[in-house]
Write a structure and sequence with these properties.
Blueprint: H1 4-20, H2 37-56, H3 61-78, H4 83-95, H5 97-126
């Protein structure tokens, strides 16, 4: 059985590439309600975290997918957006490569920092030495 997170991430990436394959960056106007870059970073961090939780839940694939989709819907509600606005904004940032690269650099750095903090908390609880933090990217 393939991992749930791989399927969702692959699907979103493939969809973005498919939608943007034949268009130049200057051909794509920003959507009327483009999700701000900082908000997009926070949203993607939470989406990837939800994806990992659904994957780690140990549920059958269809149940993990249902769990993820429900959590995703709640996340969109908290951010006061819908899936259409998310996809339009993601598409816009995907066409503008440097924008999406910068967004994902922040997402990866944040998730890596969270992982180090979690490892340190687990090590402290077990009485082991804490690992060295990962330096930020420049």
């Amino acid at each position: 059985m393939k991992k749930f997170s791989f399927r969702v991430t692959t699907w979103v990436g493939a969809l973005a590439l498919l939608l943007t394959a034949c268009q130049k960056a200057e051909d794509i106007a920003p959507p009327r309600q483009l999700i701000a870059r900082d908000k997009m970073v926070s949203l993607l961090i939470e989406l990837h975290t939800l994806e990992a939780r659904a994957d780690a839940a140990g549920l059958p694939l269809d149940s993990a997918r249902a769990l993820f989709l429900e959590a995703q819907k709640n996340l969109y509600w908290r951010y006061e957006i819908n899936d259409s606005l998310f996809m339009q904004s993601y598409r816009y940032y995907a066409v503008h490569d440097k924008d999406l690269d910068g967004i994902y650099a922040q997402v990866v750095d944040s998730l890596a920092l969270r992982e180090v903090q979690l490892q340190a908390a687990n090590a402290a609880a077990a009485g082991a030495p804490t690992p060295a933090p990962i330096p930020p990217r420049n």
